[in-house]
Design goal:
Blueprint lengths: L5 E5 L4 E8 L4 E8 L5 H5 L7 E5 L3 E2 L18 E3 L2 E2 L12 H7 L3 E4 L3 H11 L2 E6 L5 H10 L6 H5 L5 E3 L6 E7 L4 H9 L2 E7 L4 H7 L3 E4 L10 H10 L5 E4 L1 H9 L4 E17 L5 E12 L1 H4 L5 E6 L5 E6 L4 E4 L14 H11 L1
Helix pairs in contact: 8-9
């Protein structure tokens, strides 16, 4: 075992020692956990994890390396990665670099050798908290002072959204989709292309007037990081566009659509992150295994005062997982139907979006 050269200091005063990999720098983040057994590259490159230190509950991480085809963004912005057993000798004919090399290139600190079972239980019991990733010689008092003096960011979407418009075209397209990029996973664009859509990806602050000028067949609102109430410009754009085009929102896009229709959101104790969340489609009774990554949820009581209907429910904690407004050809889900590496139970939602555009 290597020398313990990194330390986690949580704002409740708990401390965890470990060994550093990736970037050798200090960071203050929100600490969360993910229960996925595979897909650490997709997690690290998912922009929804901006400013968050992710604890992987599955112990062995890094064993299949990093591959060029599996990124969910071009510039990962995760706050940090905390694992039990990091493997720096991948066994995978597709791998092009190690996980540590990827983290180092993107200035992301990693910590291995941590008792992640204890840490995950702590997050479940006490909720998500802020954490300082630092050196072992930093005292608890100094660490807590640095956490308290670091402001909570409220500009995550503006930092990770595309800075200019870009295009993803497919052969023999049938539809034109404008995708509002709040931190979008690239596999969403791939899925839209697979279903015959030419996609125009636009920055988060694109106005309703600009979207109307593009004359799309449908509007998609992406996932992304942070508190949905911080993204007021997207909420206003959706408020102006509702009813004009078929709309489909995923994760943060689901929450933003709820806010645009007058519902409310709230922060969960420790969020939902992982590929094993059962969700029930209320209309059909079908249960889907879903991939999720979010800290906020839609307040079910507030939906009653809007034109929205709850379409999906989480069977673990009964939170709202889907909304719809059939007269406006709008629907949204809290989970990720495009999830890579899986599960793939919810791909039918892209078919639903295409059918709405056909009508």
């Amino acid at each position: 075992m290597s020398e313990m050269n990194r330390k986690l200091i949580l704002e409740d005063g708990s401390e965890y020692l470990g060994v550093g990999f990736g970037a050798d720098r200090d960071a203050v983040c929100e600490i969360v956990f993910n229960t996925s057994m595979v897909g650490y590259q997709e997690i690290v490159s998912d922009l929804s994890y901006t400013d968050q230190a992710v604890v992987m509950s599955y112990p062995l991480i890094g064993n299949y390396g990093i591959t060029d085809e599996d990124f969910e963004s071009k510039a990962p912005s995760i706050g940090g990665l905390i694992v039990r057993d990091y493997n720096d000798l991948p066994s995978n004919f597709r791998y092009t670099k190690t996980l540590s090399e990827l983290l180092e290139e993107n200035h992301i600190p990693g910590v291995t050798g941590v008792d992640t079972r204890k840490l995950v239980r702590s997050i479940r019991d006490l909720g998500s908290r802020r954490v300082l990733i630092t050196r072992p010689n930093v005292s608890l008092e100094e660490g807590l002072r640095r956490i308290a003096q670091t402001p909570v960011p409220h500009d995550a979407v503006s930092r990770v959204s595309s800075k200019r418009r870009w295009y993803a075209r497919t052969a023999n397209p049938k539809f034109r989709v404008v995708a509002i990029d709040c931190g979008m996973k690239l596999n969403i664009v791939r899925k839209l292309n697979q279903f015959g859509c030419n996609v125009t990806v636009v920055p988060y602050d694109t106005t309703a007037e600009e979207i109307r000028f593009m004359n799309p067949d449908g509007v998609f609102i992406s996932n992304g990081p942070g508190d949905p109430e911080d993204v007021t410009c997207v909420i206003e754009t959706l408020r102006q566009l509702k009813g004009e085009y078929p709309m489909f929102g995923i994760c943060l896009g689901h929450q933003l659509l709820a806010l645009a229709y007058g519902a409310r959101t709230y922060k969960l104790k420790f969020g939902h992150r992982g590929g094993n969340h059962p969700v029930q489609d209320i209309a059909t009774g079908k249960i889907e295994m879903t991939s999720q990554n979010h800290s906020y949820a839609v307040d079910e009581a507030s939906v009653a005062a809007t034109p929205l209907k709850v379409s999906h429910i989480n069977l673990l904690d009964h939170t709202v997982e889907g909304l719809c407004c059939p007269e406006n050809r709008m629907f949204s889900v809290q989970y990720h139907p495009e999830s890579a590496p899986g599960p793939q139970d919810s791909t039918y939602l892209f078919e639903r979006f295409v059918k709405n555009m056909s009508s």
